[in-house]
Structure formats: structure tokens, C-alpha cells
Amino acid sequence: MYAQLVETGVKRVKSLEEMSPEERNFQEKVDAEIKIEAKNWMPEAYRQTLIRQISQHAHSEIVGMLPEGNWVTRAPSLKRKLQLMAKIQDEAGHGLYLYSAMETLGADRDEEIAKLHSGKAKYSSIFNYPTLSWADMGAVGWLVDGAAIVNQVVLQRTSYGPYSRAMIRICKEESFHQRQGYEILLTMMRHGTQAQRDMVQDAINRLWWPSLMMFGPSDEHSPNSAQSMAWKIKRQTNDELRQRFIDQTVPQLELLGCTAPDPELKWNAERGHYDFGEIQWDEFYEVIKGNGPCNQERVATRRKAIEDGAWVREAAVAYARKQQNKNAA
Amino acid sequence: MHNETLIPYLLLLGDSALVQGQRLCEWCGHAPAIEEELALMNVGLDLVGQARNWLEYAAELLDDGRDADALAFRRDERAYRNLLLVEQPNGDFAVTMTKQFLYDAWHFAVLQGLAGSSDERIAGIAAKALKEVTYHLRRSSEWVQRLGGGTEESRQRMLAAIAALWRFTVELTAASDNEVQLAEVGIAADPATVGAAWLKQVSETFASVELPLPKAASHFYLDSRQGLHTEHLGLLLAEMQFLPRAYPDATW
């Protein structure tokens, strides 16, 4: 996943009685778990919400390559280098796949990417944090891909067919990334030196809270959730997903022999869940607004890549046109 | 046994693939289109995988306690045997693709020869790599055509890229005594065949978009077969080898 705070443009969820016949027909299909396909009628707000969500998701895959690109040239062994290269390649593939799903809704990839570069479109806040050591490659795989999977597993049942199918495919690969990330950390903790173990704990300290923020604002501050849930674009609330992630991650954390930077984190037998401390929401909103540690660099890098590549794309188009003319002549 | 001649040859193959793969890693997040992010990383992945196979074999023959990782991450530049061409900085996309194409054309011809090597281990690695490099060569030659025959700007950039890189191609056609000896016993690809195939491929691809073929590069002071590299390799290795060098006792 990597979609947070996706606007629906809708203030209040309509009841079936308030809907036009076609909107009602659409909602009844959604309620009956029948997938909406590209050619089906859909409310404009549903279409726009999906475009925003899927493009945000696609942008996150592409921007998410940058913190890994920071270490791919410094991977410490041939095996780790190959693993990271394969992961990055998968992410570029996910980005392409998601942009294609988005284009089935009538959106244009270049236009949506231009919105990313102008700062209008968002991507997951997590990628605005720096990767400062090799252990971050493990922690990103384990925590960030782990958080993404919790979200995406649910999105496999999302109401829009092309998005749902994209999620099914992407989930398989991300589970693999998560296991690899965890294995990087486990190797360092079990077979590494004290310096390596310190590196792992430091990575967890820095990435723990930002990973929890990936699920977006708490339910009480998530104004778009009700409509997204009614449309079954979203299937579970931010807080439900965050809790699930914490519940499944803490035992893995303990197996590593590491701790979370949260003194309030403890098992609550009555709830059957872990309790945890309050997220620094000020930080979350600042990062979302563009004021995180790497927002400027991430967007500038992406913009520069596309701007610097303009002549390459133009050449490819010009050459293809010449070939066509030659074949036609 | 041919170890004194075979090990440097395996290092030539392994180090060239590794260094070329390392340069492709540098493109991560900076490619001109998302499709190219995928393709550049995909080609790099193939090459680093091939490098691992060659270096594992070299390490076994060396039999001095070093493994493929030790060869990749603990050797100084004077001990590296990669082609000078592949250590050159990426430059713009024209330089990157020209470098890739000139290397691929050589790599393809070498692997074709090696797939029939009398050394079964080499033949096996080469046969698998040949499938990957067949695609690499098709892709890079298509980019040479697109950029060479695309717009005025892309053509100018291609001409500049060829002018900057051509001097390093002397290594792609010149035969060392070492390789000639190995070829005579059926282990290495025949250097004369490789050189001729390389020149044919490059001439035809360049001619298809009217890119002029420079005259044959002449030998000069630097020679990767003696570990005499350009200044760029040291910096590339400093980055690539940082972690194993900084944490010599670590397990990754």
C-alpha cells in the first residue's frame, strides 16, 4: 500500500434512497461484492478517488526505489546485492503495473507523474526518511514492506477489479521482500558483530514510528474513510490495520532480540492486542505536507530523472515514427 | 593445469560483468523512463549473477581460502581484471547505452565461443549467460539505433559518446597471449573470432543508422589485463567495497 489520506471529495455517505438509479445499481453491485470493471458505470467521485489512490500507490513504488538506490551500490555481498537489485526491479514493475491499472480509469500516467513532481500528488510518507545504514535495507523490507502487505492483503478484495488484481500479484512479491528484509536483520543479529547489532537496533529505532504512520491518520481524524469504506475501496480502517501490523510484528521483533522505541508497547490480555504509545501526529502531518527529512530530495530526484530523460524519450518517438514512415513507403 | 592462465581469464569475465552491473545500479531512480528503470536493473541483475558464477569458479581454482565475495569486495583495483570500457562513468543515457552496446557485442561473441568450451564448468555458465546476453545485445543495439537515428540532439550525443569511449575498445579486439593459449586448448573463446564478430556487429548496427565507424583504436598505456585501470575504477570499488572493508569481521 502506500496510500494515505486519499481524498474522496465527498462530505457525507449517501443512502441508497438518495441515489440516482445508476448510482444505486453501482452501490448494490459493490455491496454484493461484484467487482467494478473499467467499462462499468461508476460515480465520478469513485473514479477520482481511485485515480488518486492508485496513482499515490504507484508513485510510492517509484519513489520507494530511491532509499534503496542509496544502498544498492554498497550492498555488502553478491547475494545481498542480487536480492536488492531484484527487489528494486520488482518495485519498478509494480509501479508500471499500477499506473496501467490507473489508466483503465481514464487517467494519464504522464499527467499524474507531473502532479507528483509539482508536489500536488502524494506518495507514502515513509519514503521521506533517509536510509542511513545497511541495516535499513533489512528494516525497510521487514517493516515497510510488512506494513504495506497488511494493507494490500485487504486491498486484494477492493471493489475495483483492475486494482484488486494488481494487488493479488503484488502481494506475492512483497511477502518475499519482507522475508528477505527480516532475514537480513536476523543474520546481523545472530551471526554479526556488536557493531552490526547496534546498527539493527538503530534502524528499528528510526523506522518504527514512521512505519506505523504508513497506515494514515487515526480513524477519528480520517474524514475520507467512511466513503472509501462504503465504496469498498478501503476494506478496513486505518487503526484496525495498524493494530494488526503491530500484533504480528512484535513477536518478530522479540525473536530478533531487539526492542521498539515505545515504552508503552505491551501485551493487553484483555483486548487480545498490544497496546502502544501515541504516534507523533505533528510529525506525520509535517512529512505529508512536504517538510520531512527527504521530501525535497526525493521529488527533486524524480523530477530531474524525467526532465533529463526527455531527449531520450523524444528520440525513441522520433525513431519509431521514421521507421513507420519507412515501412509505409 | 592451466590455472595461471585460466584464473585471470575468469577474472576478466567476472570482473567485467560485476563492474558493468555496478554501474547499472547507479542508475536506480534516475532512468529516463520507468520502463528503463526496470530494464537497466534487470540487465544489471543478470550481470552480477554471472559475475558471481565466474568468481566462484575463480575462487575454487585459487584455493587460498577466499570465496567469490572476498574476490569481489576485498581486492584492490590493481588486482581487478575488468575491461577498461565498463568502468567508465555512466555519463548521459547515450554514454551508458553505447558502453552497454560495445560491451554486449563483445560479451555475446565471447559467450558464444565459451558455450562450446572444453571446460564443462565454463561451458555451463556461458550457455546460461548467453541466453541473457542475447537479450542485452538486442536491447542495447536497438537503443543505439533509436538514439543514433532519433533526433538531432540524440544523434549528437551518440557521436560524442562514441568519440569518448572508442579508445577503450582496443581491449575488445586485441588478443593477449594468455587468451590465445587458452583458446588453443579449447577453453577460451578464440580472440580473433571474437574480435571479428564484435567488429561486424558494431559496424552493422552503426551503419543501420549512419553512425560513422571510427578507425580501429590503437593500443595505449593502460591495460586492464595487467591491472592498469583508469582513475574511475578505484572510486567505484571504494563505494562498492565499503561495508566489507569497514567491518572486516562482519557477517552479512
Automatic annotation (TrEMBL), chain A:
Coiled-coil residue windows: none
Domain of life: Bacteria
Classification via SUPFAM superfamilies: Ferritin-like
Recorded GO CC terms: cytosol
Database matches in InterPro entries: Aromatic_CoA_ox/epox (IPR052703), Ferritin-like (IPR012347), Ferritin-like_SF (IPR009078), PaaA (IPR011881), PaaA_PaaC (IPR007814)
Gene3D superfamilies given in the database record: 1.20.1260.10
Name the UniProt record assigns to this protein: Phenylacetic acid degradation protein
UniProt source species: Pseudomonas putida
TrEMBL record, chain B:
Pfam families found in the cross-reference section: PaaA_PaaC
GO cellular-component term (any): cytosol
Stretch forming the signal peptide: none
Database matches in SUPFAM superfamilies: Ferritin-like (SSF47240)
Biological-process GO terms, alphabetical: phenylacetate catabolic process
InterPro entries: Aromatic_CoA_ox/epox, Ferritin-like, Ferritin-like_SF, PaaA_PaaC, PaaC
NCBIfam families: PA_CoA_Oxy3
Name assigned to this protein: Phenylacetic acid degradation protein
Species this chain originates from: Pseudomonas putida (Arthrobacter siderocapsulatus)
